[in-house]
Design brief:
The structure is a single chain. The chain contains 13 helices and no strands. It is mainly alpha-helical. The protein is globular. It starts with a helix and ends with a helix.
């Protein structure tokens, strides 16, 4: 009976949504970085699967249904961007230069750390697009012969960590400009960072959504080039 329940596609879907809602309520009561809803929901799902000895493939039958929402959710970020398009035109040069430079430094330092820890080529290719939203990162990783599963885990971890430590860093550095805060969170922590940016305000959310797209485009070109250069110089 229990096996029939857990193997039903609706099981994974209901568990995913239910655990996130529970984590959200916990975060509302204790708004601490360690209780980030996505991080806490992930831990709760893992705990449930372990305690119930539920095969991951059974859970994923339903949990994977949420994956199809990633792309439309990313596209939907264009709505607040459209509403603040005047800010984009006014700050276009600063936004583009900041994202391009930040993406280059991010990918380059990730590659250097990968070489220092002597990661295999496929693993290195998998982690380079870590700051790009999942829908784009998976495609970049596969084109560079990376491992899609590793990329998925790294992207999620990057988003969670970025959304947790990003706001305190911005506060420490006294970054109060809405455009700057939005671009910083979107270009470093993609969709999860954008969700955090939207808590600041409409402008931050729109700029963060823009940063996701621009960072994705820049990474598509930079990641393969830097991977080849790093491999040529150090491997």
């Amino acid at each position: 009976m229990f096996q029939e329940l857990t193997s039903n596609p609706m099981f994974g879907l209901i568990v995913s949504i239910g655990m996130y809602l529970l984590a959200l309520e916990i975060f509302k009561r204790w708004p601490l970085p360690i209780f980030n809803p996505l991080l806490l929901a992930t831990v709760l799902v893992i705990f449930l699967l372990k305690m119930g000895k539920i095969p991951y493939k059974d859970y994923y039958e339903g949990g994977s249904m949420l994956n199809v929402l990633i792309t439309p959710a990313t596209v939907a970020l264009g709505i607040p961007l459209y509403n603040t398009f005047h800010l984009l035109k006014h700050h276009a040069r600063s936004i583009v230069v900041g994202i391009v430079f930040g993406s280059f430094v991010n990918i380059f330092l990730t590659g250097i750390l990968g070489l220092i820890f002597k990661l295999d080529h496929d693993i290195l290719a998998s982690i380079l697009p870590k700051s790009v939203t999942t829908a784009i990162a998976i495609g970049i990783s596969e084109k560079m012969c990376g491992v899609a599963t590793v990329t998925l885990v790294i992207v999620i971890a990057t988003g969670i960590i970025g959304s947790i430590i990003g706001p305190p860093i911005l506060k420490l550095l006294k970054v109060e400009e809405p455009v700057a805060r939005g671009v910083a969170l979107g270009s470093s922590a993609h969709a999860i960072g954008t969700a955090k940016a939207m808590e600041y305000g409409r402008v931050e959310g729109a700029m963060s959504g823009l940063a996701i797209g621009v960072t994705g485009v820049v990474t598509v070109f930079l990641a393969p080039i830097l991977l080849n250069l790093l491999g040529h110089w150090f491997m």
